[in-house]
Amino acid sequence: MLKNSLQALFVLVLSICTLAWAQDYPARSITMIVPFAAGGPTDTLARNLGAILTTTLKQQVIVDNAGGAGGTIGINKVAKARNDGYTLLLMHVGMSTAPAMYSSLPYDTLNDFEYIGQVADVPMTLIGKKALPPNNFKELLPYLKANQDKLTAADAGLGAASQLCGLLFMSAIQTKLLVVSYSGTAPAMTNLIGGQVDLLCDQTTNTTQQIKAGTVKVYGVTSRQRIPSLKDIPTLAEQGLKDFEVVVWHGLYAPKGTPKPVLDKLIAALQGAVQNPTFKARLEELGAEPVPLSKANPESLRTQLQAEIKKWDPIFKKAGVHAD
Fold first, then answer.
1. Which CATH superfamily is domain 22-122+248-319 in?
2. Are 138 and 165 in contact (CB under 8 A)?
3. 185, β-bridge pairs
4. Of the candidates 52, 50, 89, 118, the residue with the CA atom closest to the CA atom of residue 273
5. According to CATH, where is 3.40.190.10 located in the chain?
6. Mean pLDDT by 10 residues, the chain (324 residues)
7. Which of 159, 171, 146, 156 is nearest to 205 (CA)?
8. Which of 142, 138, 122 is nearest to 219 (CA)?
9. Across the strands, what pairs with 235?
């Protein structure tokens, strides 16, 4: 009886202490891990989101780029972090492709994280170097088929959204180009602008400024409908690539076991961010958009991740893409 009473007292004291601690959260800066190099599209989204969360939470949200191994190094860093709410993960669709890409992972994708919510959907654009002869998508298709042994498609490395888009695009047009993988989006874009590679399919958060500046040729956007920031650029679907759609979703996560009162504060802060006019306007400039409020919650993110894992596994197996 005494033992049970002491156990109950311990649980009660622990609950009171946890609640009191959570009420003070956050008491210091928060680190948001981006598992890719600085300057890339996910990094851009993270810095815009971090600026809004900093204001809402009244503590600095610092972006930490922990790239490598298709994003799995950064993801694992969060999985193994203290579950106190001071380490978060912002990751795109690659969260769902890693289980298909790697025979083993140092973390459990579905069970080692707390879900905060979806953040933003980012379309992609198919762009080429300025000297590429085709001036539109109608001219591009036959050119790619006739020169597939000579042309290169850049991507930002294993697990990057640009790799996923490239795989789907080559599958859709039934043409295999020479793939050149880089350590991040920035060097891939630099070499595209410099003319060392021919094509790149990447998120609008990385390509919109280059398209508007005229440093690259653009052949289409990958969303179902045209996007306001690039309203004159037709979709690939409307140009004949029927049903082709690649929109990169992003989610916010915390380590497993993060206290519910802390998660509740983070969920509320995220829901405020996706409705924030400044955040919306900034993403619109980059060709992206925050998710609707109905998606900025744990249940929506969990459902999305589970569905996407099932979706990508057969695609990767068919393409023969495997990291180890």
1. Bordetella uptake gene, domain 1 (3.40.190.150)
2. no
3. none
4. 52
5. 123-230
6. 53 50 88 93 96 98 94 97 98 94 94 98 96 97 97 92 92 95 92 98 94 97 93 95 92 98 98 98 93 98 96 79 64
7. 156
8. 138
9. 221
